[in-house]
Amino acid sequence: MQRRNFISLGLASAALAGCTTGAPKKVSTAVAKADGGGEKRMRGPFPILSTPYNKDGSVDYESLKRGVRFTVDSGCPGVIWCQSNDAVDLLTFDEKVKGYEACAAAMQDVNGMMTFGCNGVDIAQMIRETEAVEQIAKKYTRTNIAIITRPPSKGRTLDDVRAYYEAQGQVAQRPVIIQTVVNNKCPSPTVEMLIDLAKKYPSIYGYIKEESGGMKANNHMIKENAAKPIIHTVFSAWGGWQWLYQSRRCGSEGLITERCAYAPLLGYIWKQMENNDRYGKLTLAYALFRLLIDQRGFPGGLRGYSLYYLQRQGVFKTTLSRVYLKAKKKEQGMVAVGDTTKWKLSDISLTDLQKAELDECYDDMLRFVKE
Length: 371
What we know:
Layout: H1 3-21, E1 44-45, H2 61-73, E2 78-81, H3 85-90, H4 93-106, E3 113-117, H5 123-139, E4 144-149, H6 158-169, E5 176-179, H7 191-200, E6 207-209, H8 215-226, E7 233-235, H9 243-249, E8 254-255, H10 263-274, H11 282-293, H12 306-312, E9 320-324, E10 327-330, E11 333-336, E12 343-347, H13 352-370
Parallel strand pairs: 1-8, 2-3, 3-4, 4-5, 5-6, 6-7
Antiparallel strand pairs: 9-12, 10-11
Helix pairs in contact: 2-4, 4-5, 5-6, 10-11, 11-13
């Protein structure tokens, strides 16, 4: 049976089941999703937009604008830039500010949250980026703007982490999502610290991208959601792995991942979560998402063959990436060896057979979402 026939059969079965019962499908949860207060638009999938590059390695700001609109217009309530390693470490401050402005301009009068990465090796770098975003927000008053910040990459103690976020809390004037992990040397903020920061800065903190390793993330997520309304929203991470479980069992109310190429399906999955899986399609939709992002043996990583999809859709002009000049592969991805600011250009290579398979998978996704 061909895949499209399988999907069609699944959709038909789900629709029939919905017609037969005539009632919503009840999805049990271990943690009730109580109102967390805060900014109501800070929920749902917030994909991290991959940074597009020209052939000479410069940032392609026009493609960046298209990527922002593609993500939000596909049904995702928010989009994030610049938060992936190639953007955090391998973009200059001036490139980031120019990108902030391009994204803010693209999102004027759009019903979506433009979320900017403000990160630093230390407090000074993070504050410089946060202040730049605040200046952009004053200029683009018709754009909804938030911030996401991971711990200081040179932090070594929990006191370092607290001081870092305390400093940002005194400068930021909008919601800040705290990404809990940066590297293996800087400790993640504890659940108690996250709650304490949210108490002290209720209009800024209380939004969490929970990406601790293994079951620790699930346990933390349950504790964080139990602290509502002090904590507002807890997002899943890990490329969407366990998003379905965390939504049903741990109280997750969104997803943050560099998977913007799949924005139409992420938006669709979110709608099914929000309507309590009324038509019984959530598991099928999530399984299709896992198929799309788990093509083993293809050019991998968070960018990888996803860039091919963005190029195919006319969003990006190239599939190029900046990569660390010297790097080694670890569980959390590619990590720089030595200087984290030196880079080289890298491109993906796909065979005709691989492209054919990717095309069929993506077309199945688009048909699924449309039907």
